[in-house]
Specification:
Layout lengths: L9 H4 L3 H4 L5 H12 L3 E7 L2 E7 L5 E8 L4 E5 L9 H12 L5 E2 H9 L3 H14 L18 H7 L11 H23 L3 H19 L8 H20 L3 H17 L5 H10 L4 H16 L9 H18 L2 H10 L4 H13 L3 H14 L3 H17 L3 H15 L2 H13 L3 H15 L3 H10 L2 H8 L6 H11 L4 H18 L2 H20 L3 H14 L4 H7 L4
Parallel strand pairs: 1-5
Antiparallel strand pairs: 1-2, 2-3, 3-4
C-alpha cells in the first residue's frame, strides 16, 4: 500500500494574493478578507495540495471549507449555500493560509506523532471517534459480519491474536532496564581498564536496541537518548581498544553498513562514530574508499538509493572536514550542490577559506532554485550573516529585513536595529517594517520588541492598524493604560465594537470585559460622568441586542 505524501506542495507555498484576484468576485474576496481579519477561520489544517478549515455559520453548524491548489486551478468546496463557487468562506481560508501559514496544523506532523503512538493508544483514539460518530466505521473498511459477532464467536477468532503483545510504554521501560544492565557491565569493564570487552558489550547493546526500537513506543524519547549516549560511550571504548589497522577496518565495515541501514534517527551519531574514530590517513582513506565504492557501484549492493547517497556524501564531507582536505571537500560539495544541506556546508567551508564571493554565488543560486520554504529561509539568513561578518552591512540589512518580514524573528529584529542604527537609517527602516508587517498582519513579534524597548507610540500606531489581531490590540491597550490612558481607551473601544459586531453571546462576554477596563480608566481619570454617558449611549444603540444588554448593564 502506497502512503500519501503529506508534505506541503510547491503550488500551495507559492500561492499569492495576486493569484486570488484572478478568481471569484471582488465583493466575495472582500468578505473573505473581513472574515480573516476577524479571526473567524478555525481548525485549519494543511497537507499536500490541500487546506481545510471551518467558519461559524449563521446556524449552529459550522461551514466546512476545502481548497485544492494545483498548477492549473484553485478548486474550492464548502457546505454553505454558495459552496459550489468561490464563496467568502473559501477566500477567508485562502487569505488565512497566505498571511498566517503558521496557524495551520500540518498533517505531516500529525502523521509523525501518530507513528510514535502504540497500537493500543491508537485503538483507544479510534474507539472514541467511533463513539462520537458511528459513520467512521465505514472509513475503517471492516467486514460488517464481524460487527455482529457474539462474545464466543469473537473469542474463538481472536484467540491467536491476543497471544501477541502490543507495544507500549511499559515494554519500552522493560527493554530499557535490560539494556541498562549491559550498560552497567560496560561501565565496570572500563573502570577496570578493559575497554575491549566494554566495547563488545556496548556493541551488542546498541545492535539489540536498534533491532527492537521499531517494536516499542518511544514517544517520550527516553530510549533514543539512552542509545545516543551508548553510541558515544562505544566510540570512546573503540578508540581505546582497537590497535591495528585491520581491526579498525573490520569495525569501519560493520558500522558503515549499520549507518546506511539506519532509519530511526541515529544516522548522525553513526556518522560521528565512524569519522570520530579515523585517526590516521590510512583509516580516512579506507572509509573514503568504502563510500566511493558504494557510490559508483563497485561494492554490493550496486544500486544506491537517493537517501543512501545523501548519507554517504555527508560522511565523505565529514571525513574531508576532519582531515583538512579542503580541495576534496569543495569538489564533492560542488558535485552535490542540489542538496540544500550540502550547499550550506559548502558555503560555510568557502567562508572559512575566505572565498566570500564564491560562497555568495552558491547562496544566490540556491535561493533561486530551492522550492522548500524552510531551506530557503535558512539560506537567506546564512547569506545575511555572511554579508554581516564581512562588512557588507548594507546587503546584510536588506536580506535581514526580507527575512524578518517573513518570519518575525525577534533576534533578527535586533540585528536590523543594530545595522540600521550604525547606518543612521533606523527611523526610516523601522517605519518601512511597520508598514510592511501591518499590511501582512504579522506584527506580533514587532509589538513585543517595541514594548520591550518602551516605544509606546509605535506600538499604538501598530495596534491602530486595521489588520491587527485582537490579542495584539489588547496587549498594547493593557500595557499603556497607566501612561497613555486616552489611547488605551480608544483601543479598548475598538475591541468592544469588534466583539459586539460578531453578535454571539461568548463575544458579548469579551466586550463586557473590555468595557470594565474602560470604566476603570475613566474612574482613574476622575471622569465618571464621561463613562456614564458612554455606557448609556452604547446600551441605547444596541437596545435590540437583549443578550448584550444583559451582559453590560451591570457596568452602568
Amino acid at each position: 500500500m502506497m502512503t500519501e505524501n503529506y508534505q506541503v506542495s510547491q503550488e500551495l507555498m507559492e500561492l499569492t494574493e495576486e493569484k486570488l484576484e484572478k478568481i471569484g468576485q471582488e465583493h466575495t474576496r472582500i468578505g473573505g478578507i473581513n472574515y480573516f481579519r476577524e479571526n473567524r477561520v478555525k481548525n485549519q489544517m494543511v497537507w499536500g495540495n490541500t487546506i481545510v478549515g471551518e467558519i461559524g455559520g449563521s446556524a449552529q453548524e459550522s461551514y466546512k471549507i476545502r481548497i485544492d491548489v494545483t498548477e492549473e486551478k484553485i478548486k474550492s468546496t464548502c457546505n454553505c449555500p454558495y459552496g459550489g463557487n468561490y464563496c467568502k468562506h473559501a477566500f477567508a481560508l485562502l487569505y488565512t493560509w497566505i498571511r498566517t501559514q503558521n496557524t495551520f496544523k500540518r498533517l505531516e506532523n500529525i502523521e509523525f506523532i501518530l507513528s510514535k503512538k502504540s497500537s493500543s493508544e491508537l485503538t483507544t483514539i479510534l474507539l472514541e471517534m467511533v463513539k462520537n460518530d458511528p459513520h467512521i466505521i465505514q472509513e475503517l473498511h471492516i467486514d460488517e459480519k464481524y460487527l455482529y459477532e457474539t462474545s464466543q464467536e469473537k473469542g474463538k477468532r481472536y484467540e491467536d491474536f491476543y497471544r501477541i503483545s502490543s507495544p507500549s510504554i511499559q515494554q519500552t521501560q522493560e527493554l530499557l532496564e535490560k539494556l541498562k544492565k549491559f550498560h552497567g557491565m560496560a561501565v565496570n569493564y572500563t573502570n577496570q581498564g578493559n575497554h575491549h570487552d566494554a566495547a563488545k558489550v556496548l556493541q551488542a547493546l546498541i545492535l539489540k536496541g536498534l533491532e527492537k526500537y521499531s517494536e516499542v513506543d518511544d514517544s517520550t524519547g527516553i530510549l533514543s537518548d539512552f542509545l545516543e549516549e551508548c553510541i558515544h560511550f562505544y566510540s570512546g571504548c573503540i578508540s581505546m581498544s582497537l590497535k591495528t589497522i585491520e581491526e579498525k577496518k573490520d569495525f569501519f565495515k560493520q558500522i558503515f553498513e549499520l549507518y546506511l541501514n539506519e532509519t530511526h534517527g541515529f544516522a548522525h551519531s553513526m556518522m560521528e562514530l565512524i569519522a570520530g574514530n579515523c585517526t590516521v590517513h590510512l583509516e580516512y582513506q579506507f572509509v573514503e574508499e568504502l563510500c566511493k565504492g558504494r557510490l559508483v557501484g563497485t561494492h554490493e549492493p550496486a544500486q544506491v538509493t537517493e537517501y543512501d547517497r545523501e548519507k554517504i556524501v555527508e560522511l565523505l564531507l565529514e571525513l574531508y572536514q576532519r582531515e583538512g582536505k579542503d580541495d576534496k571537500f569543495v569538489s564533492l560539495a560542488r558535485q552535490e550542490i542540489d542538496s540544500w544541506r550540502v550547499c550550506l556546508r559548502l558555503c560555510d567551508k568557502l567562508e572559512s577559506l575566505n572565498r566570500i564571493e564564491e560562497a555568495v554565488r552558491y547562496y544566490k543560486r540556491a535561493l533561486e532554485e530551492e522550492t522548500g520554504k524552510y531551506p530557503k529561509l535558512l539560506m537567506q539568513k546564512k547569506l545575511a550573516e555572511l554579508y554581516e561578518n564581512h562588512n557588507q552591512k548594507e546587503k546584510a540589512l536588506e536580506i535581514y529585513i526580507s527575512y524578518f518580514n517573513e518570519r518575525g524573528d525577534l533576534e533578527i529584529y535586533e540585528k536590523i536595529k543594530k545595522l540600521s542604527s550604525e547606518a543612521q537609517t533606523w527611523e526610516n527602516t523601522r517605519n518601512t517594517i511597520l508598514i510592511s508587517l501591518g499590511k501582512a498582519g504579522k506584527c506580533h513579534t514587532l509589538i513585543d520588541a517595541l514594548l520591550k524597548e518602551g516605544d509606546i507610540n509605535s506600538c499604538i500606531k501598530l495596534a491602530m492598524m486595521p489588520n491587527q489581531s485582537t490579542k495584539d490590540i489588547a496587549k498594547v491597550a493593557n500595557a499603556i493604560k497607566d501612561i497613555k490612558s486616552r489611547e488605551s481607551i480608544a483601543l479598548f473601544k475598538k475591541l468592544i465594537n469588534y466583539y459586539i459586531a460578531l453578535k454571539r453571546r461568548e463575544d458579548y462576554k469579551f466586550a463586557a470585559e473590555y468595557l470594565k477596563s474602560v470604566k476603570d480608566i475613566y474612574v482613574q481619570l476622575d471622569e465618571k460622568q464621561v463613562w456614564e454617558k458612554y455606557i448609556k449611549r452604547l446600551i441605547k444603540q444596541n437596545a435590540r441586542k437583549k443578550v448584550l444588554v444583559e451582559e453590560i448593564s451591570p457596568l452602568a
